[in-house]
Records
---
Amino acid sequence: MAAIAEPYRIKMVEPITLTTRAQREEAIRAAGYNTFLLRSDDVYIDLLTDSGTSAMSDRQWSALMLGDEAYAGARSFDHLVAAVRDNYGFPYVCPTHQGRGAEHLISKILIRPGQHVPGNMYFTTTRLHQELAGGTFHDVIIDEAHDPGSLHPFKGNIDIGKLEALVAKVGAENIAYVNVAVTVNMAGGQPVSMENLRAVREVCDRHGIILWSDATRLAENAWFIKHREPGYADRSSASIAREMLSHVDGLTMSGKKDCLVNIGGFLAMRDERILLKARELVVVYEGMPTYGGLAGRDLDAMAVGLHEALDDDYLTHRIGQVAYLGERLSAAGVPIVRPTGGHAVFLDAAAFLDHLSQDELPAQSLAAEIYLDSGVRAMERGIVSAGRDDQGRNRHPKLELVRLTIPRRVYTNSHMDVVADSVIRVHERRRDIGGLEFVYESPTLRFFTSRFAPIAPDVDGSMAGLERGGRDTAALAALA
């Protein structure tokens, strides 16, 4: 495959600095071996998340200067509504400060205590909001999604049999809504096929169930349909995205991903009754219905970014860069989730550190070890992210992953080479890497703020060889 150059020119740069091994040892100890708690200044290449970390375009920066900061009725809101209508086909929009604000609102609107919410694999904040509203999440994704080595082209698909079985078991009236994510983050950024969306729509229509979408990475999913699903090769990603959304009743969007902005999100829907309820709640939790916790300039930048994210040249480079990193790692024998997704390469930490049990937190340990090696910051997506069930027991997800998340329009493939070289080095000495244990555990969304310490015997040259840290009980009490 020929090299694909960035479909843009660089106008502005931000310096980054590589720290020494000794500096990184000190930093990871201070962060309690949690990459979320590292200071940005201590990070060389930051692959923690693609949320709010994109580089904005010249048109987006121009839009910032034109933002209407009126408290009510700002024209910036009108610009966002028009962009959503033109690209996504929804007439009604309610902005929120970010995607989880939208998740909060729709959970309170659609879920009655005791109801059930089937979806194609959980996402951390989505499931939490569903549970806080009194709902129970059910994973109805196809089995291939839980197999890192499966080459199924649409591992994000909902298993229609599982969905029908759940409806038969609990009754359609007890299904709050079906939530389909495009793409599926926790499965490795895996897409959903158009055929599957149509099938899920048919089930929902037959049973009178609302079909909602977490459309945070919609553009990437549309690109995969274009390149993997028969009948779409000659279609633009923009037109495919519009067709995808024609099958759903509404969506939550984190503008920090596919809208290419640093903050923002929204709900979009066809039913004016849901809009009215959202407007009632957004005033309580976010802000006026026309700004939803955002400045007018944020709304304008999001409107421009929504258009740009559906450009095929941009998407070809974006997804090609993810594939480039994945191919380098796979060629070196590093176990990854295959096929590579749209926003990240996911390391199979369970296979990478197969000498550790899942309760020894292999993904958390691997993310910390990669940082120690090179200053590259990744994040855990395994048992720590899965949290505890309502009985206080650790959930044990089938996938134990480390996510190397590539910000949009930020890094070049030279940066990807640095990342690949580091992960390969760590893989070569993987037997020296020990596990971690909690020394402070946050009661909710624990992957953000929990702290850890090594539990393995000291081994020179790896994280296990560092002095145990983070056990200052006074500091832990203050965190709690």
---
Amino acid sequence: MPKPPSRRSKATSPASTDSTSAASSVNEDISQQVDPSSATITVSAVEVTELTQEEQSDRLYLERKVERAFFEAGKALIELRDRRLCRSTHKTFDEYCLDRFGYNRSRSYQLVDAAVVVDNLQKCPQIVDILPTAEGQVRPMTKLEPQEQQEAWLRAVELAGGKVLTGRIVKDVVQRIMERTQVPNTYQLGEVCQILAKDNPELRGKGGCWAIVSAVNDFSCSVRMWDGEYAVGLQHLKSFNYLPQECQQMQVICDRINRVYSGGLEESVQGFLESLGKLKRAYLTGLEEKVLSLLEVEIKD
């Protein structure tokens, strides 16, 4: 009778033994680990050094530069415009700003107007340390008189209560002031008016000049003068009460003067054009007509 096959013991390799031992060791380590929710994480403290006196001074200086960036830009544009420093390369200031800075007419004059307002605010002792930090804060105030601008800014700062002073806050304050002093605008397109500069720094040197209304707004008019276009408050205008035909004559004269002014002629010509810009009559004399015609020929050549 044959013998049943004998059972041989299964050999266990050393690698298998080591693997089993390692697994047991891992399980044992996991079982002995502390609950993660009660674990303590050690964070090394990083010492923050205080600013030195010189660093504090530098920080304040740099912050002021950031805050005054729009103001400095506006001041520079005013000088570039008033001194006509772009006349060698561009016919008009508007073209120059667009080519050199990418500013359209609206943006250029927003910065110019803002600089005029900030200059006015700096005259008020109560405002020295709380000047605007962005052009958008200033824009609504350009419609007000200098004294009203100071009043509006102080009121807006008070309403902000130490928080960020937004353009919306300023706009609301300005609106209330304008409603308080609202005067109906009765001027018409094409009407010829005299400029009353009073205490408006933007109109410095323009007092007594004539201007032609090109747009009628709620509280101001856009007017064309011998050297460009301006936004002027109603309180700075006085109608000459010219007849319609006389207004048309002045429109033609204004167009002719503007073309010569933009022609890039010598600075000496500017004095003559400025004298025409202060005429108190709706016509040119024979000599004035001859000189202006000669200048028109020059810019064509």
---
Amino acid sequence: MNHSIYSADRTTHLKIVVVALVAGILVAGFSISTRTTSDEGFTQTARVMKAGKPVVVTSSGSSLVR
């Protein structure tokens, strides 16, 4: 067995790829299986915002002190 990735032969690289694929499949399978399937309490409702009366914003250079 080669302990360096630079001097590894083809079978060692193949083993690394196979182990990485198996580990990725296991992680994906575990994450899919632990996901909750019930949506109780997590439902979202659509909220509609309606426009009100138009507002006019003006600005003048003078300041008003009361």
---
Amino acid sequence: MEVEGKTKYAEEAFDFDDGRQQKPELDDDGRPKRRGTLLTASAHIITAVIGSGVLSLAWAIAQLGWVVGPAVLVAFSLITWFCSSLLADCYRSPDPVHGKRNYTYGEAVRANLGSVKYRLCALAQYVNLVGVTVGYTITTAISMGAVKRSNCFHRNGHNAACDESNTINMIIFAAIQILLSQLPNFHKLWWLSIVAAVMSVTYSSIGLGLSIAKIAEGGNVRTSLTGVTIGIDVSASEKVWRTFQSLGNIAFAYSYSNVLIEIQDTLRSSPPENQVMKKASFIGVSTTTLFYMLCGILGYAAFGNHAPGNFLTGFGFYDPFWLIDIGNICIAIHLIGAYQVFCQPIYQFFEGWIRNRWPNNTFFTKEHVVSLPVVGDFPFSLFRLIWRTLYVILTALVASIFPFFNDFLGLIGALSFWPLTVYFPVQMYMAQAKIRKFSVTWTWLNILSSACLVVSIVAACGSIQGLVHDVGNYRPFRV
């Protein structure tokens, strides 16, 4: 693949009309010259990090309180930044400045840790991707329902019974995703990232502004140094489980390691990519942390110990209803596109594996060109239609059975935080830098990794307990 790519780009460097060689605009790997800078990389990181995870931060701070809550946010940001710095050195291997480029997170793991660790990394990545698509289905359905409820409250008063069915909203969302999933080159829709970035910043800013307005109004809001109070708000066991679950919610808010190598691959070669990426990670993570602190702390100050799990759909805010509607519409638009960003790697992996396994089976390999109005010639595959439709239906079914925002986000954050944010970056760095076993650096890096493993385990336990508890009181597929 690499040789073919170099040949292709080398041919494009010639002007075949007069035989003269044009000025080559290629990088050391034969690919078109990368133009990314510190500014663009920082913007990509902020876009990748700020997302639906911000919606649960007020609830997470409410479980932990004024002291532990902000401290945990800072701790996660420091760990994420530090491990991102280690990962930045693994973009090239074996040398972080002059080595061979690794274009994806998985390639970096394979180059530094071998094929066995690569398979484990791939498993963690795909489990995370599937979990995120289910989580986005839940979040979008809740936001779609919140728009209807907001208008119902506006018409009938805040005490009206304005229940909405998440099942119907999930069916609508799944129908949209089935259509979008048939696009074979969805990744080429470059404007998707711009739309997602604008939407995520918009709804986060709306939530922040509404929190400030609610604080300014005053009112009897009860907060405490330790968060929700045992015996008043929750029982002792609920306090423990909610504390664990809140760690998963915060971990989910900081997950972006999956795309760090891909972001680094956009940077120009000089100055060295790892140096620029470390600065970009610092700018991106610190900017995001400031934004998260504002949303989490002001959200807690606005709602107190009764902060809703999602501060735009939990109806601590009722007015202005049109602004709440805009916020939730932005969430839906963002996640409709983001779902495709996360499911496309799953589609490509499975379809590639199937075609390699049965290369002579025309059902798997053959495509038909269909002429459609407006769209024009469209490549159609019956296999792609069936399997991608089944995947979307499966994620919608799981979301319908477990439509619990905080629990599911906490579980996704717990499952992805330790392996993808901490373990593999630490292991790759130690392998590349040839850190001697039982040295001071080796010891404390392993202590950090082990501590983060414990955090992921307790966060997963808290989220699973929450799911089990909520499922016991829930009737799925209620229309």
